[in-house]
Specification:
Blueprint: H1 8-21, E1 26-32, E2 37-40, H2 42-48, H3 61-71, H4 83-90, E3 96-97, E4 101-103, E5 106-116, E6 119-126, H5 128-150, E7 153-159, E8 164-167, H6 170-175, E9 191-194, H7 199-208, E10 213-220, E11 230-238, E12 244-253, H8 255-276, E13 281-285, E14 291-294, H9 296-301, H10 315-324, H11 336-348, E15 354-357, E16 363-370, E17 376-382, H12 384-413, H13 415-434, H14 443-473, E18 481-485, H15 486-504, E19 507-512, E20 518-522, H16 523-539, E21 546-553, E22 559-565, H17 575-578, H18 599-609, E23 613-619, E24 623-630, E25 635-636
Parallel strand pairs: 19-21
Antiparallel strand pairs: 1-2, 1-6, 3-5, 4-5, 5-6, 7-8, 7-12, 9-10, 10-11, 11-12, 13-14, 13-17, 15-16, 16-17, 18-20, 20-25, 21-22, 22-24, 23-24
Helix pairs in contact: 3-4, 10-11, 12-14, 13-14, 14-18, 15-16, 16-18
């Protein structure tokens, strides 16, 4: 503490003043009529945090005030004016106070008063904590009101007699009515209707017992007769003496929600009525597995336990009750409890429809759909007819397969019986044709013998093709593989078709690379493939045309054998039919050519038996190309020697 001693009396007065103010949380300064500082305490120095020379004994306190003013301490004080105005105020010989000022993060309350002749006392009180609390409370109140005004609801208050005393601003915007028109009116006098049965009775009892209430929906009365619905919540409040003073709460307009509920209720009733007319069984269970709704079909399905099928019954209770009635007799192959747990797992973790046969022999398909709300929709369809149709179809398929197998086995077993007489016909006709036992005596006998021989050979070829197909279908035809040069295979086939080509005036051309590798194949079967393809090509090529045989190895290693002709060709859409057994294209031109239609089908079957593929491309009046693609693993490439 620093002070100026003018005389012993002043010192005694100062000591007494300081002793009186000791322990008070105040910063103080005493100045004379010339505003010179006579006395100040350390608390003031702490509050103002002024540099040396600005605040000291004997100095004009006006300089301190100017320093603080320029620093911005008084920036938020209304009507403070300039530093000179502030200095003039400090010397006014009467009590005064300033609005709180901020000095170095402290909120200070300034007060001045004369204390003796030509002496003046100014005190600085730190009210930072109080100011912060008041600001926080004000901010909280403002925030609460802001939230209320920004939202769709409003606040209200009523006294201990349930008369309204206050509404927040949102009430007028939402209700379209001035709040003042409802002040002093009793709550119950302003309610036209409660949404719930016995709503008024329950609400009166709640208020009389001073209990909070929540989500009470009512329709208020309005002078203009408009219809609105409010949801209201409130709680009682008491004064400092714990005396009941009324209720405070919040309300929102739920007119749209109530209208939606009514529409949903109406829609729900219509949907329920419609679902009752469905043959499919439908039921809705909540997230706790309790029944919420079911249609008549569901009740009919559970007719043995119909008294139990009411809202609130659990899915497990339904299953167990049906188990006790024998509903699942003949269905349960495991222990009863194991079956129940299995059905519960299928209900809680559905992974698709479940087909089940019931004790009466009928079949049902059960679907469980999990909803986002946690609810489950159970749908049960009667599929007895479908199951019977499936059984009939399966039986018919088995019957057809058995018939096909019997046909194939019959043809395979009739090989000897069919071939023997045909060989005799062919043999005897050949003897007659060659007159091995002398002249026949008449030229007609030789002609007839040639016809018999030709017919027998033709019939034998047809039967051989049929039998070959049947053996392939039965898997009885195994390949006898050997390493062959393809040029030799072609040369072995040409003599068998050359005479036919000459007769048809069709030339045969070869385009076979000289360095073709050898290939693993069944020589007899490959000759059969090529003869069939060459015979077909010659048969459908007009005089003057050509049949070309080409062979090459692709970069992939596959060998491609192509038989091309300049014949009548066919439409691309007719190719699949031409590949079927006995398939012939139904056109006037193709009917002019004899044959069973087994050639291409047999060639394809034998090619696929080699692991290959037969492809056909054709255009009417342009010609046909048939490609045999043998896989690379059958092609034996020559070993390359490094020199």
């Amino acid at each position: 503490m620093r002070f100026l001693v003018e005389d012993v009396t002043d010192k005694l007065e100062n000591d007494c003043l300081l002793e009186a103010l000791t322990g008070m949380d105040l910063g103080l300064v005493v100045m004379d009529g010339g505003r010179r500082i006579l006395l100040l305490n350390a608390q003031l120095e702490t509050y103002l945090a002024a540099p040396a020379g600005v605040l000291e004994m004997g100095r004009d306190f006006a300089e301190t005030l100017r320093f603080c003013h320029e620093r911005g301490d008084f920036a938020e004080v209304e009507d403070c004016g300039s530093a000179d105005d502030l200095v003039a105020l400090a010397a006014v010989p009467r009590e005064w106070s300033l609005a709180p000022v901020w000095a170095q993060d402290r909120c200070l309350q300034l007060r001045g008063r004369p204390i003796a002749e030509n002496r003046f006392l100014i005190t600085y009180q730190d009210i930072s904590t109080h100011q912060a609390s008041a600001a926080a409370a004000l901010d909280s109140d403002r925030r609460l009101l802001d939230f209320a005004e920004a939202g769709s609801g409003w606040f209200w208050e009523m006294d201990e007699n349930y008369n309204y005393t206050w509404f927040s601003n949102n009430f007028r915007r939402r209700a379209g009515t001035k709040a003042e028109s409802r002040y002093g009116k009793n709550r119950f006098d302003l309610i036209a209707e409660f949404a719930n049965d016995n709503g008024e009775e329950i609400h009166r009892r709640t208020l009389s017992e001073r209990k909070p209430f929540k989500d009470l929906i009512t329709r208020p009365k309005f002078d203009d007769g408009k219809v609105l619905w409010f949801r209201t919540s409130g709680a009682p409040f008491y004064d400092q003496n714990n005396v009941f003073r009324g209720y405070r709460g919040v309300a929102t307009d739920v007119t749209g929600e109530i209208a939606f509920r009514e529409r949903a209720k109406s829609e729900g009733e219509r949907i329920a009525s419609a679902m009752d007319h469905l043959n499919e069984t439908m039921a809705l269970f909540d997230s706790q597995d309790r029944l919420v709704f079911c249609n008549e079909a569901f009740r009919a399905l559970n007719r043995k336990i119909i008294d139990l099928i009411v809202p609130g019954v659990t899915f497990e209770e339904v299953i167990r009750a049906n188990m006790r009635t024998g509903y699942f007799d003949g269905v349960v192959t495991a222990a009863p409890e194991e079956f129940i747990q299995q059905r519960l797992r299928q209900f809680h973790e559905p992974d698709g429809p479940v087909d089940m046969i019931l004790g009466d022999g009928s079949w049902v398909r059960i679907n469980v759909q999990l909803l986002a709300s946690g609810e489950r929709v159970l749908a049960v369809s009667d599929i007895t007819g479908l199951k019977r149709a499936e059984a009939d179809l399966h039986a018919a398929k088995e019957q057809a397969e058995q018939a096909s197998r019997a046909k194939s086995m019959f043809l395979a077993n009739m090989s000897h019986e069919l071939r023997t007489p045909l060989n005799a016909i062919s043999g005897f006709s050949e003897i007659i044709q060659q007159e091995l036992f002398g002249p026949l005596g008449d030229a007609h006998y030789g002609e007839y013998a040639r016809d018999i021989h030709a017919s027998g050979q033709h019939l034998l070829a047809i039967i051989n093709d049929i039998l070959d197909l049947s053996r392939i279908e039965e898997g009885q035809d195994e390949l006898e593989e050997s390493e062959n040069t393809f040029a030799e295979v072609i040369q072995a086939c040409l003599p068998l078709v050359r005479e036919r080509a000459v007769a048809a005036k069709v030339r045969i051309e070869l385009d076979i690379a000289a360095d073709l590798p050898t290939v693993m194949l069944d020589l007899r079967r490959m000759k059969q493939i090529l003869i069939n393809l060459l015979s077909n090509a010659i048969k459908f090529t007009e005089a003057g045309g050509y049949v070309r045989v080409a062979a090459s190895v692709e970069p992939s290693g596959d060998m491609i054998i192509a038989v091309s002709d300049s014949g009548i060709g066919m439409r691309p859409e007719d190719i699949p039919k031409a590949l079927e057994p006995f398939g012939q294209i139904d056109s006037s031109l193709s009917r002019s050519y004899e044959g069973t239609g087994l050639g291409l089908s047999l060639a394809r079957q034998l090619t696929e038996a080699h692991g290959g593929e037969l492809q056909i491309s054709s255009e009417p009046n342009i010609g046909t190309t048939v490609q045999i693609i043998l896989p690379s693993y059958r092609v034996i490439m020559p070993v390359q020697h490094l020199g």
